[in-house]
Every structure is written in C-alpha cells, then in structure tokens.
Design goal:
Number of helices: 4
Helix content: 10-25%
Order of helices and strands: EHEHEEEHEHEEE
Number of domains: 1
CATH topology: Dihydrofolate Reductase, subunit A
Shape: globular
Largest sheet: 9 strands, mixed
Strand order of the largest sheet: 5-4-3-2-6-1-7-9-8
Distance between the termini: 41 Å
CATH superfamily: Dihydrofolate Reductase, subunit A
Bound molecules: NADP nicotinamide-adenine-dinucleotide phosphate
Number of strands: 9
CATH architecture: 3-Layer(aba) Sandwich
Strand content: 15-25%
C-alpha cells in the first residue's frame, strides 16, 4: 500500500555550466540561462505552491522569487497563481532590504532555534532544529500548511542537501554551453565527492533537449524517499509548463512587480 503523503512533491531546478558550476568564483551570480530557459522556469514556478532557496542564494543574488509572467507572454492578474516563497536560513542571516522580505508575497523563513528571535522584515518565521534547519521537519511543516508542491531552486548547499537526503522527486537541469572552472565557484553537488561508483548519486534521465544553445536534462534521482504529495500537472515533456489560473497557494498580497530572478 502506498504511504500516506506527509511532504510536498519536490522539484529541483537549476542552471549549471558544462563543468557543473552554478555561479562564478566566490558565488558571484552567473546568468547561465537564456530566454527560453528563463521562460521555462517561470512555467515551473507558476505550477508549484512554493519556491525554496537557501540563505546563500538570497545573500548572493537577492532574488524576488516571483513568477515573471511577462516571460510567459502573460500580463499579471489576480487570477494567476502566486507561489509562496520559502527560505532556509538557520542562522537568521537574511535581513531587509532582501526582496524576499518585502511582504508582497507569502514568505516562510525557517531558522534554527539558536538563531536570533524574530528578525525584521515581513515573513512567517518558523524555528526548527538546534543549529541547522532539518529538511524532514521543514518539509512536513510545509505540507501541514497547505504546500503540496515545492520548487527547489538552489543554491549549491540546498540542492545538495535535498539530493543527498533523497528529498528530490524530479529534477530539471539546464546545462549552459560555458565552462567556469573549479575552485571557489559553487558546484551543483557540494560536499565530499563520491569515492567510487557505489557512492555516486544515481539519476534516471527521462529526457533531454537542446535549449538556448545548451541542453535541458530532466528526470528523477534513483533514491527518493516516500511520502511525497501528488505531483503538479505535468506537460507533454514531463514537467509543468503552463500556468494554471486560480491555482497555487493563496497569498494575501500581490507581488511587488520589481524585476529580478
Ligand atoms: N545557477 C543556478 O540555477 C543557481 C540557483 C540558485 C543559486 N545559485 C548560486 O548558488 C550560490 C549560493 O549557493 P550556496 O550553497 O552558497 O547557498 P544556498 O544553497 O542558497 O544556501 C545554503 C545555506 O542554506 C542554509 N541552510 C539552512 N538549512 C539548510 C539545510 N538543511 N541544508 C542546506 N542548507 C541549509 C545554510 O546557511 P545557514 O546556516 O546560514 O542557514 C547554508 O549555508 C550563489 O552563488 C548563487 O548565485 C545558482
């Protein structure tokens, strides 16, 4: 019998260089996606209940994490979904004027219990774990609060934690036709490298296609933990592509309309 769902369906998406890097040296943001891939990501965002990133990404990129409807050829309207924003910020380092704290969209910030209490800015604060936010508890909290599908966009530390923990149900990686080089640039999979073939993180590739001069690859990891909610509606190529008017987590306020990723 299938296990009862107790966590959201998790989708990991990011753009990387051909040598597996997510950004330039010292985490300087790299625009690796072209227009087509950026539009595809907006389709993904629009199809999920929430978008999650780590504190490192907020500090490096200051993303707005809103759906950029204009890239999908649509005018924003109240009928269109507004996915919530979720930030993993164990130490409470994310502070105003970070865009994710602008109060325009429902935002949940997970911190550990050792982080300073109630930081400034507009967000729902949830304290879990002693030093680092534990993913199982955070996922369960999100599920209990109505989030059934979650898009994990990065960065390196967060995607690695999700992949290594078996919390990714599907992935889509856009591989850009550039080489960045190793060193201080964050890799798709941070942490200790596999010592041999048995230690690699196996992926089942379900499809690929040329995009923006690079390649889009999608599929599922070989090891996935049970308990995921049903996936969002998938398009013909295996990932959610079209916005679903009227769906998504209801937010009390409209997006700010500020530009940015
Ligand atoms: N190419 C792309 O698609 C893409 C997308 C996003 C980001 N990026 C790039 O990625 C870089 C940021 O990556 P990053 O690794 O520094 O930061 P990150 O993955 O965004 O955030 C990592 C931080 O999240 C916090 N965290 C809390 N709970 C965690 C958990 N259970 N597992 C993992 N992390 C947890 C930790 O900091 P605390 O202990 O302080 O909480 C950790 O240092 C930037 O250079 C950005 O430009 C690229």
């Amino acid at each position: 019998m299938a296990r009862k769902a107790d966590r959201p369906f998790v989708w990991a998406n990011c753009a990387l260089s051909l040598d597996g890097r997510l950004a330039y040296a010292n985490g300087r943001p790299a625009q690796l996606s072209g227009r087509e891939d950026l539009a595809r990501v907006q389709g993904l965002r629009s199809a999920v209940d929430a978008i999650l990133v780590g504190s490192g990404t907020v500090l490096a990129d200051d993303p707005s994490l809103r759906v950029h409807w204009e890239l999908l050829g649509r005018t924003p309207s109240p009928a269109l979904p507004v996915p919530a924003r979720v930030i993993l910020d164990s130490r409470g380092r994310v502070r105003p004027p970070a865009r994710v704290l602008d109060g325009s969209i429902r935002t949940v910030v997970f911190t550990s219990r050792s982080a300073p209490r109630a930081g400034p800015g507009s967000a729902e604060r949830v304290r879990l774990g002693e030093r680092r936010v534990p993913l199982p508890s955070a996922l369960h909290w999100l599920y209990q609060h109505g989030i059934r599908s979650l898009l994990v966009e990065g960065g390196s530390g967060v995607i690695s934690s999700f992949l290594r923990g078996g919390w990714v149900d599907r992935f889509s990686f856009f591989v850009a036709p550039v080489l960045i080089g190793e060193g201080s640039s964050p890799a798709l999979l941070s942490g200790p490298p596999a010592g041999g073939p048995r230690r690699t993180l196996g992926l089942e590739v379900e499809g690929n296609k040329p995009l923006d001069g690079g390649v889009l690859v999608w599929g599922r990891p070989r090891r996935v933990r049970p308990g995921a909610a049903s996936p969002p509606e998938l398009g013909p190529e295996g990932w959610p592509v079209s916005p679903r008017p009227g769906k998504g987590v209801k937010t009390s306020r409209r997006p700010s309309g500020r530009d940015g990723a």
